[in-house]
From TrEMBL:
Keyword Kinase: yes
Gene Ontology cellular-component annotations: cilium
GO MF terms held by the record: nucleoside diphosphate kinase activity
Highest taxon in the source lineage: Eukaryota
The gene coding this protein: Nme5
UniProt-listed PANTHER family: NUCLEOSIDE DIPHOSPHATE KINASE (PTHR46161), NUCLEOSIDE DIPHOSPHATE KINASE HOMOLOG 5 (PTHR46161:SF1)
SMART domains recorded: NDK
Pfam families: Dpy-30 (PF05186), NDK (PF00334)
Domain Nucleoside diphosphate kinase-like, residue spans: 12-150
InterPro entries: Dpy-30_motif (IPR007858), NDK-like_dom (IPR034907), NDK-like_dom_sf (IPR036850), NDK_H5 (IPR012410), Nucleoside_diP_kinase (IPR001564)
Gene Ontology biological process terms from the UniProt entry: cilium movement; CTP biosynthetic process; GTP biosynthetic process; negative regulation of oxidative stress-induced intrinsic apoptotic signaling pathway; spermatid differentiation; UTP biosynthetic process
Keywords for the protein's UniProt record, in alphabetical order: Kinase, Transferase
Family: Belongs to the NDK family.
Identification of the protein by name: NDK5 kinase
């Protein structure tokens, strides 16, 4: 008797991780902890953001008392941006990070990354996306060339096609028509 089994599926979620300027010298150590925690580092880049780019990245924090200090801190030196992948990546990464206030993290989550590498509420060493939708937005910000799965649908798909696919097709088909090869394949 043949049993009906569902097709195997791989549930992989992605999240953004940032190693902030004050702990970027601990990059290898932090990456090792990330890998040992079951994450795959899909993409990685080292960059330095301008205060304006930081303001755009943290736009949801605009108007809060700490916002000017946050943008100054995040633009004070190079940082490492990574796309991490694994099952339930956003929640596992938040768990590994611990509370955003490093002082509180040392009391309540002493083995978390922010307890180990952070110094206070602002300089907490690392950043993690709060949700799947913020992860998607933040990954696009740090890695504008990346294509995130699932493939966009609806208006986002039409925008992508109009911006990237149609111009390439138009140029290729125009060149093909000009050449008029006997065997176009």
């Amino acid at each position: 008797m043949q049993m009906l089994m569902p097709e195997p599926q791989i549930f992989v979620e992605r999240t953004l991780a940032l190693i902030k300027p004050d702990v970027v010298d601990k990059e290898e150590e932090i990456e090792d902890l990330i890998l040992r925690s079951g994450f795959l580092i899909v993409q990685k880049r080292k960059l330095q953001l301008s205060p304006e780019q930081c303001s755009n990245f943290y736009a949801d924090q605009y108007g809060k008392v700490f916002f000017p200090n946050l943008t100054a801190y995040m633009s004070s030196g190079p940082l490492v941006a990574m796309v991490l992948a694994r099952h339930c990546a956003v929640s596992y990464w938040k768990e590994l990070l611990g509370p955003s206030n490093s002082t509180r993290a040392r009391r309540t989550h002493p083995h978390s990354l922010r307890a180990i590498y952070g110094t206070d509420d602002l300089r907490n060493g690392l950043h993690g996306s709060l949700s799947i939708s913020s992860a998607e937005r933040e990954i696009r910000f740090m890695f504008p060339e990346v294509i995130l799965e699932p493939v966009p649908a609806g208006q986002r798909a039409r925008d992508y096609l109009n911006l990237y696919v149609k111009p390439t097709l138009l140029a290729g088909l125009t060149a093909l028509c000009k050449e008029k090869p006997a065997d176009p394949m």
